Amino acid sequence: MRELTLDEIEQVSGGGTIGDFAAEGGAIGSIIGAGIRGTISGAARGGITGAVLGGSFGAGFAAGSKLYEFLS
Fold first, then answer.
1. For the chain, how many helices (H) and strands (E)?
2. How far apart, in Å, do the first and last CA atoms of the chain sit?
3. Could you tell me if 33 and 25 are in contact, meaning their C-beta atoms sit under 8 angstroms apart?
4. How many domains does the chain have?
5. pLDDT 10s digits, 2-54
6. Burial (CB count <10 Å: 0-12, 13-18, 19+), residue 5
7. What residue numbers bound the domain in which 30 lies?
8. Is residue 6 part of a domain?
9. At what angle do helices 17-37 and 40-71 cross, to 10 degrees?
10. Which among 21, 25, 27, 65 is least buried, having the fewest CB atoms inside 10 angstroms?
C-alpha cells in the first residue's frame, strides 16, 4: 500500500484552497460585521461578504498556483 499524495489527501478530506479561504473569510467577516453593526444581521452580512471575497481569493490563488507550476 502506498502513501497518499497531497492532492489525494485534499480530495479525501473535502477541503482545498477555495473552501479554506472562504471559511476563514466568512469567520473574519462575521466578526467584523458584528463589530461594525452590533447586530446579528450585520454579522450575517459580513460573513457572507467575507466568504465570497475569501472564496474568490482562494480561486485566484489556486489558479495562479497551478499556472505557476505549469510554467515552471
1. 3, 0
2. 31
3. no
4. 1
5. 888 887 776 666 557 888 899 999 999 999 999 999 999 999 999 999 999 99
6. exposed
7. 16-71
8. no
9. 150
10. 65
